[in-house]
């Protein structure tokens, strides 16, 4: 990507509008289009679903899979809830009814809960 005043003595690299670092040093979460997508801009929905044989699963949806590190979120939720879990498409599923614990973890990370 070319910078401001490209090819002139006043040339400056393009910087991130959020953190102010150059784009190659920026670590802001971005979506598939390359736009910055912060956790506060991703409303999350948490539901408890009853599955076959009466099993209850807590489902977290609304997270952007390219802007959010779903693997680390899943790992933390499994640890906090002391339960198994998995990712399906762009949803996280935790075994059991752990909505209160999941809400606490995600609000601590800055995600708004719907």
Which SSEs are present, and which pair or pack?
Blueprint: E1 45-50, E2 56-61, H1 70-81, E3 85-88, E4 91-95, H2 99-108
Antiparallel strand pairs: 1-2, 2-4, 3-4
Helix pairs in contact: 1-2
Search tags:
2 helices, 4 strands, 19% helix, 4-stranded antiparallel beta sheet, alpha+beta, 114 residues
Could you provide a short overview of the structure?
By secondary structure, the chain is of the alpha+beta class. The chain has helices at 70-81, 99-108, and strands at residues 45-50, 56-61, 85-88, 91-95. The radius of gyration is 19 Å and the shape is elongated.
Work out the helicity level.
Answer: 10-25%
Count every helix, treating DSSP H or I runs of 4 or more residues as helices.
2
Average predicted confidence as pLDDT: 86
Major sheet: size, sense and barrel closure? 4 strands, antiparallel
Would you kindly provide a written description of the structure presented here, covering whatever features stand out?
Helices cover 19% and strands 18% of the residues. By secondary structure, the protein is α+β, with helices and mostly antiparallel strands. A 4-stranded antiparallel sheet has the order 1-2-4-3, with helices on one face. It is elongated, with a radius of gyration of 19 Å.
């Amino acid at each position: 990507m070319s910078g401001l005043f490209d090819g002139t003595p006043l040339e400056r690299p393009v910087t991130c509008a959020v953190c102010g670092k150059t784009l190659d040093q920026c670590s802001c979460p971005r979506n598939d289009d390359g736009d910055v997508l912060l956790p506060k801009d991703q409303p999350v929905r948490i539901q408890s679903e009853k599955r076959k044989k009466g099993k209850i699963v807590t489902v977290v949806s609304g997270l952007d899979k390219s802007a959010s590190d779903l693997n680390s979120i899943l790992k933390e939720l499994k640890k906090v809830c002391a339960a198994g879990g998995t990712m399906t498409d762009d949803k996280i599923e935790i075994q059991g009814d752990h909505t209160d614990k999941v809400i606490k973890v995600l609000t601590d990370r800055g995600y708004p809960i719907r």
